[in-house]
Amino acid sequence: MTSLTLYTKLETLPPNLKKEAKNFIESLIKKTNKQKEQQINQPKFGSLKGKITLSEDFDDSLDVFNDYM
């Protein structure tokens, strides 16, 4: 549906339905903006690659647990 077709149909509505259509369109715009924000704020898989490192002695036993081994 083209914008002109939509505008033509909108112009045939009475004023109270035009207001309802306007409110509906505004709610659709808000919904779209929220979806875009969620997509922007959602982290991408692998985005922390190379930023987290483990120390060389990560797998070594801790001295605190020597009594239990």
UniProtKB/TrEMBL annotation:
Residue ranges occupied by any DUF2281 domain in the UniProt entry: 5-68
UniProt protein name: DUF2281 domain-containing protein
Organism: Pedobacter alpinus
